[in-house]
Amino acid sequence: MRVPAAEMASPSLAREAASAALAPHRHDEAVLGKVQTCLLDVIGAALESRDLPWARQAVGIAPAVKGGVPIIGAARRTTVGDAAFANAVLAHGLVREDMHAASISHLGVVVLPALLALSRTHPTSGMRFVNAAVSGYEIGARIGAALFTTDLARLFRPTGITGPIGGAAAAAVLLGLDVDRATSAIGMAANATGGLNEWPAVGGTEMFFHPGFAARNAVTSALLAELGAEASESALDGKAGLFAALRRDETRPAIRFFDGPPEIMAVYNKPVPACNFAQTACQLALQLLRDHGVRADEIRAIRIRVPRAAARYPGCDSMGPFSRLLQAKMSIPFGVSATLLRGVIEEANYRLPIGPEMERLLGLVTLEEDAALTAAFPARQGAEMELALPDRVVRGRLDDVVAATPAEVRERCERAATDALGRECAAAILRFVDAMPTAADMAPLADLLAADGGGAP
After folding, report:
1. Where are the membrane-spanning stretches (predicted)?
2. What is the CATH number of domain 276-398?
3. Distance of alpha carbon 431 from alpha carbon 440, whole angstroms
């Protein structure tokens, strides 16, 4: 049974998070634009991944419900929880999603699918949707940044832990819960966190489903709280709460929500479909090729320096063997070698099996932690690289990852929507998202994203 706040020595972390999420916030144009960009990123990635095996599997287990909640790019409609699950898996299907470095989390592929599903069953204005999204990113990001260390992230998938909590906070805002019930939603979600980081070593595809579990559990937690279910207020910071369970109760820093710019503004949108920690090094490899006219066949050694968080994240230091797609996408040595070999960063870089020249380049790689780059992380995610050639050494540095621009995110979403749903529907989706802050109801967007013609203009 919930302990009344007046009887507690101080508010629980779950209550503080709920109060922060529900408090009135005025967001400027930059924040509104960021929500729109992240939403387009989710939509575009979901539509692009609709034919991938894990996407088909997520859609395939959703029960068909006449008049139910749409699944992005699919003809099937289903329950609100199953739609949240399927859409989150779809959005994560390319490994090209938004990234919050401090919490090592992909919050957009949990928070936004949860809100899209709920907005189809609960009338929601565009601004309520925006406020819910910003609060969800904030709560998930701040708690994740306080919770996760480099060593903890070697065991647990951060998105599987931060996602349900941020998603439940967002859902509480959308549903209009009071502080007590929002606190219970967050506490319930803390009980529904999970996700192990064993998959990078073996290439298991469970990682695609982590956001799905998180989004569905976020929705379930909020709906249970709406009906009066009471979770432990101390589920986050109690003696047997989440922080204690992950051995972070004695060492966690103070958490202050909305202390400065909203955390969604610290999120970047990936330019290419690969591990977050491989992005900067691959971009630097491409820059060195172009700036110095380097040919792959003349490279004699490749030295890469990255922040400690990047070098130690599971799979990022892998030198092989590479038998599965995710082993390749997680490996910084693989990503850099493929970029140097092919002169481009694209999905085709990760095709397996690899050839003799790729094998040779991988054998030349040394990956090191760098103290200065570590000190700059997570505010900056830099990389340094040296390429030894027969007659010279080429060196370079990127201080931070180069994110996809809002225009690039919009263009790839439009392209994916046109391919999946047709030009007219793609244009209608973009118009709706552009006008989202003034929308009276978000439900038509969910219908536009379906492949059953229910929202066709």
Report:
1. none
2. 3.30.1330.120
3. 14
Could you tell me the CA-to-CA distances from 113 to 86, 116, 233, 398, 429 in Å, in that order? 9, 5, 26, 33, 16
This prediction has a pTM of 0.94
Provide the mean pLDDT of the chain: 95
Residue pair 52/422 in contact (Cβ under 8 Å)? The answer is no
Q: Where are the beta strands (DSSP E) in 12-166?
A: 69-70, 77-78, 98-99
Alpha helix locations (H) across 256-319?
Answer: 276-292, 308-312
Determine the Cα angle at 140 with ends 37 and 185, to 5°: 115
How far is 81 from 92, CA to CA, in rounded Å?
17
* Residues 333 and 318 sit within 8 Å (Cβ to Cβ): yes
Helix (H) or strand (E) holding 31: helix 29-48
Q: Name beta bridge partners: 345.
A: none
Residue 228 burial (CB < 10 Å; 0-12/13-18/19+)?
A: exposed
Cα torsion 437, 441, 444, 447: sign = positive
* Residue 247: per-residue pLDDT: 87
Region(s) of the chain under CATH 1.10.4100.10: 5-269
Query: Which residue reads 């929880």 in tokens?
Result: 81
Beta bridge partners of residue 366, listed in sequence order: 303
Contact 195, 157 (CB under 8 A): yes
CATH 3.30.1330.120, the chain: domain bounds: 276-398
CATH value of 5-269 in 1.20.1270.10, 3.30.930.10, 3.40.50.2300, 1.10.4100.10:
1.10.4100.10
Q: Could you tell me the two tokens for 60?
A: 């395939």
Sequence-separated (6 or more) residues with CB below 8 Å from residue 352: 322, 323, 324, 325, 328
Q: Max CA-CA distance within the chain?
A: 74
The residues with which 269 forms a beta bridge, in sequence order, are 98
Helices (H), 246-322: 276-292, 308-312
- Indicate the pLDDT class of residue 453, thresholds 50, 70 and 90: low
